[in-house]
Amino acid sequence: xxxxxxxxxxxxxxxVGYAQDLASAWTFDGRYVLLRSLATQSVVDxxxxxxxxxAGGGGVGAQPTSCPAGxxxxxxxxxxxxxxxxxxxVFAVDPGRLGQPNAVTGVS
Length: 108
Prior knowledge:
Radius of gyration: 13 Å
Strand content: 25-35%
Largest sheet: 4 strands, antiparallel
């Protein structure tokens, strides 16, 4: 199983897919309620001051990475695809929350 649907919204059951869903929602949609369904309040607040990943114009990519200091869980690098400059962030995903709302618990 790769996703769980709750009231019409699917939540990925893998960390990379979950982080990519948040990165895409933040970059291309921006609706607060959608962002809050995927991440904690502190992550949504932190993203509001960061440059979005659309500089590449080619979408959003994601890959597993090691967690930097201050983040724990399963860490995923999300990045702009194509173009320049290269922009990326690391999202911490709580493995116990995969398939459920609010699994992204940190950003660096």
